# Entry
Amino acid sequence: MTHEAILDSPAVERLSQLVDESVRASREGVRHFVEPTPGVLTKAKSKRHNIIFGRRGSGKSSLLQKIRADLTLDRTPIAMVDLETFKQHSYPDVLLSILIKSFSEFQTWLDTAATNPSTKTSFWKKLFGSVPNRPGFNRIETKALSAEFGKVIKGLEILLHTAEEVKFKATAGAERSDDVKGSVSGKLPYVGSELSTSQSDRTRSEVQSEYSSRKIEVLHRHIMNYQQLFVRLSTLAAGPSYLLLDDLYHLRLEDQANVVDYFHRVAKGTNLWLKVGTIRHRSRWYVHGHPPLGMKLGDDADEVDLDVTLERYEVTKAFLLKVLGQFATEASVSLSDIMADGARDRLVLASGGVARDFLTMFSKSVQVARERLLGGKDARGPKVGVEDVNRAAGQQGAFKEEDFTRDTGTTEDRDRLQGVFRKIVDFCIDNNANCILVEKDLTTLEIETINELVDLKYLHRAKLRVTVRDRGRVGRAFDAYMLDLSMYTGSRARREFEIIKFWGSGSDDALRRAGLIYIERQAL
# Structure
C-alpha cells in the first residue's frame, strides 16, 4: 500500500464521515454519547433541578439529547428547547416565546411518544434507536391534556402578538398627540384575562414599558394554571416530567435569571424538573435580592460540570480517545495505523479537552496529511503527524473567531474580551512560551475576563497550584493557563516558540518560572 493509500482508504474515508456527522448534537447521534466522567448521565436524569456547565462543544447538547432519548423510551414526558433561537429577544417577549415553545414540545410529545405503540418502529427506531419499555398512556386522557396544552399555547401567542399591536397603536398615538388616551381589550383564550389599558403618556419608551409590564402581570397571574397542567401530566405519566433548556447563555445576560426563575416557580410542587445547559462565566442563573431570582446552586439546583480540562491531562486524553475510538471501531480503523506518535497528544492540546474540537481537528488533520502526501511531502511519513495537527489547529482558529463573535453580546463586550486577550498573546510572544501563570485567589476584573476567555476556548486551564521558584512564600501558588494552539500554529506559526510540556512525569518544573507570571499580588 502506498503512502497516500493509507489515509485514502475507504475505511479512513468512512471514519472521517462518521466524525464529521457527529460534531453537531442530534437525536440520531445519541448512540455515540460517552460520559466525560462516570455518573454524569445518572445525575443529569435525577429528580433534581440541574445547571449543566460546559464550554461550547463540551457535550451539553449531546447530554441533553441523551437524556431526552432515554427518558422518552421510558415514556417519561420531556421537552427540549434550544434557547439560541431566542437570542437577543427582549424581555418579557423572550419568556413568552420560550413558554410557547416549551408547551408546544410537551404537546408534541403527548401526541406522539405518549401513545405511539412500540410496534411503530418507524418512529421509535429512527429517533431513539430502540422501542419503549412501558405501554402507551391512556389515549382519551392524553388527548384531553394535549388539547389543554393547545389552549395555553394559543393564549400565549395572542398575548405575545396582540401586545405588539397594542404597543404600535399606542406609540403611534403618542407621536400624534401630547396626550395618549386609548384602551384596548382582548380576550386571551385559556390565559383567561382581559388585557386593557388607559393612560396618558408622551414618549414611545414609556408606552412600550407599560405594555411590557402588562404582559409580565398576566404571566405571573397564570403560574398556578401552568402548575395544574404539569400536575395533571405527572398524574397521567405516573411519574415526573422534564424540561431541558439548552444554551441559556444565548439569552441577554440581564434576562437569564428572570427566565430561570419563572420556570422554577412553575415547576415547584409539580414533579417537573429543569435541566439548564449553559457556559458558566457567560451566564447568570441566580441573582441575590429581595426576593432572589433564579435557582441557587446547592439549594435550588445541583450543578453538572461537563468540562474535562488539561488539568487532568491523562483522564482527558483517555476520554477523548474513547470518543474517537468508537468511530474508529465502527469504521474498522486502527488509530495507531493512521496517527504517528505524538499526534494524539498534540490533538489533545489543540482541543483544550473539548470533545467536538478534538473530533473536528482530527478530521482536519487527516485532510491536511492527505494533501501533504499528494504534494509529494512524505518525509514525515504516511500517518497523521504533529505538524499536520498544528496546521489543522491553525485552520480551526477562524472557526473559533466565528464562535467568539456569536457567543459575545455587545460590541463593548467583544472589545473588552479582545483587549485582555491581545495583552495575553503579546505577553506569551514576548516570553516565547505558550503558558501564563495567574496567582490564586485574586479577584480582579481581568481575572474574571480570563475565566470568560477559558469558556470561550481562547485559553485553557493547564495546571492547578503551581509554585514558582523565587515566589516560595508559604501558601503562595499560581494557576497555569495555556494559550490556544491556533494562536501560534498554522499560518501563525512562530519560530522557537516553546510549547511547555506541563503533563506527564517530570513536568512539574516546566511551569515554575517567574517569567511566566502574568498576574500576581503586588509586593507589600
Q: What stands out?
A: Residues 37-305 form one domain.
